[in-house]
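A further point concerns the way the authors explain their paired sequence and structure data. Since the whole study asks how a given chain folds, the encoding of that fold should be made plain. A single example would do more here than another paragraph of explanation. An entry of this sort, consisting of the sequence and the corresponding backbone structure tokens, reads as follows:

_____
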Amino acid sequence: MLKRAGAVALVVCGLAGAAAPDCKLVPGWTQKGDVRSYSADNLFEYMDGNAEGYLLYGFQSMQGATCEKGDVTFVIDVSDFGDPDSSYGMFSANRDPRQPYARLGMGGQVVQRRMIFAKGKYYVEIAANPEGNHTAALNEWANALEKTTEGSSDPPAALAWFPTEKLQGLRLVPESVLGIRLLSRGYAAQYEFGKAFVVTEASAAAATVLMEKLRQRFGETTPARVADEAFQANDKYLGRVCLFRKGEHVGGYANVAEGADPVALAASLAGRIR
């Protein structure tokens, strides 16, 4: 992921004012070198060209420190993503779907040489050197950092909007939801029978304008009775779709498989949005 000399690690401590993590937080560890500080303007200097993924999710600033104990080195960085949706989005983009979650903040994961979690607007990531299983020490650090990180541990409210039955994946898409530029940022969920999404505009009026642009984009559409307004369409790439507006939210289903009802699916999704 990130190419760094010696070790790779990212951790978000979540302290007000983006304070650098303190190596004394866990007994027996000492600081190696100076603390680090980066903004969106110079993050690329630290990440050897891998900064774009962070910037896509609204990265604002990072503070970090390298901590060591014996021959083990942890690189710890504190990144502010501005809001919980963005920090959780960064976590979702970097977690290994093959590995279990850890009960850290809004969501976390600990593997042999890496720990990540999101809490509030902060994203926390640790990577360890040398090779080997460092899960015990990573868990100790994770628990300490989670306690000192400001912000809520409640997952973004949007996650509860999507039904869990036959859900294969759910994440924040930072741009071009469904591959449509008009849908600039929102949540997308993959199901066995299709893909659901919800984007949130600044106001109901802005969402109304977006719906009209989407009608023009899809061309031939059929009205549907879902939420405040809705339409169905058949698309070359997205197949059978049903899109709706509910207040400032625009959502729906695409690539709906035969045997499933796009309108019924969209109505169910709209009913879960509060």
Q: What stands out?
A: The domain at 157-272 is CATH 3.40.1000.20 (Protein Transport Mog1p; Chain A). The first strand starts at residue 30 and ends at 39.
